[in-house]
Design a protein that fits this description.
Layout: H1 3-34, H2 41-59, H3 67-85, H4 95-118, E1 123-124, E2 133-139, E3 149-154, H5 155-177, H6 179-189, H7 191-196, H8 201-226, E4 229-230, H9 235-249, H10 254-274, H11 277-294
Antiparallel strand pairs: 1-4, 2-3
Helix pairs in contact: 1-5, 1-6, 1-8, 1-9, 1-10, 2-3, 2-4, 2-8, 2-9, 3-8, 5-6, 5-8, 6-8, 9-10, 10-11
Length: about 300
């Protein structure tokens, strides 16, 4: 096997792993603080992708130009959605099940809205950087025939990776080094205890919902650099990946979700290279089943964190 394929799998694992990490971490913040099973999280990501597509198609600008607009719009949209939907769940006998059904309905509504506005066709985002590819390194005798080969990586993927890693670093700093971030961690650990010290749990929950929505939207913008097209029906797979990541990393453990997302991305990409396609698709889910059976609190979670 060519070593170039292994290097490409490594880079692809980092790129997709960073995307999965952000999707999973944003959902984990929402589920950890609010106990809301957001089945519409993939559609939140999709909204960011379609807003980036709109900016590109209308102005011809780099889809990244939509990042600040999407972040702000999704944050305030998430806060508004919280006050509109979530407080009513308090009167339910089983809030988590009710939130699942509620957000499943929101998911269907968002898919219908996106299809109504943009149509049911996949929309291309044909933006390219100059140069299109970057040669990261030269592999000696890459093909086993005395010929060297270059590891070429799309510039858009490298840009997406750098932005993702910067957001992950900023999110880690926010959660562990700022008072609002520490309040979020406290709410994940014990919602009742933090109210004793005077924290407004409703305001904190609304901000957590807005933060999760903003991160999801930003991830959707970055996703257009890695997969240069947007599909109105692409939200469900993203939601599935988000739930896989938080199960692997541990519910209520945002940093665990970041690490689990990177791990899942690496496993997925190396499986695609080393195994037949039919078998490669199973590896990540086999890992998920194994974690649920033998370490149900997640690879990076703790049993006391609930």
């Amino acid at each position: 096997m060519s070593s170039i394929l292994l290097y490409n799998a490594l880079i692809g694992g980092l790129v997709f792993g960073a995307i999965y990490a952000l999707i999973g971490a944003s959902l984990n913040v929402m589920m950890g603080v609010l106990r809301v099973v957001n089945f519409a999280h993939g559609e939140f990501v999709l909204i960011g992708s379609f807003l980036a597509y709109s900016v590109f198609s209308l102005t011809g600008l780099n889809p990244l130009a939509a990042l600040p607009v999407v972040a702000i719009a999704m944050f305030f949209g998430g806060v508004a959605a919280y006050y509109l939907l979530i407080p009513r769940l308090r009167y339910s006998d089983d809030a988590e099940t009710s939130s699942f059904l509620l957000m499943f309905g929101v998911s269907l509504m968002l898919v219908s809205s996106i299809t109504w506005i943009y149509g049911a066709d996949i929309r291309p985002v044909n933006f390219s950087f100059d140069p299109v590819n970057i040669a990261l390194l030269t592999v000696e005798d890459a093909y086993g025939k005395g010929r060297d080969g270059k590891v070429l990586v799309p510039t858009a993927r490298l840009v997406a990776l750098v932005i993702n890693l910067a957001i992950i670093a900023a999110m880690t700093w926010f959660i562990y080094r700022t008072l609002p971030g520490k309040a979020l961690r406290g709410a994940i650990m014990n919602r009742d205890a933090i109210q004793v010290v005077g924290i407004d749990i409703d305001r904190l929950s609304a901000n957590a919902f807005g933060l999760a929505a903003a991160l999801a939207g930003v991830t959707g913008v970055i996703l257009t650099l890695v997969i240069p097209s947007v599909d109105p029906n692409g939200g469900a797979p993203l939601t599935l990946f988000a739930f896989i990541v938080i199960v692997l990393g541990g519910l209520g453990h945002p940093i665990g979700a970041l690490l689990a997302g990177m791990l899942f991305g690496m496993v997925e990409q190396f499986s695609n290279v080393l195994l037949p396609q039919s078998a490669a698709q199973m590896v990540g889910f086999v890992m998920l089943v194994a974690v649920v059976m033998f370490k149900p609190e997640g690879l990076f979670g703790r049993k006391v964190m609930r």
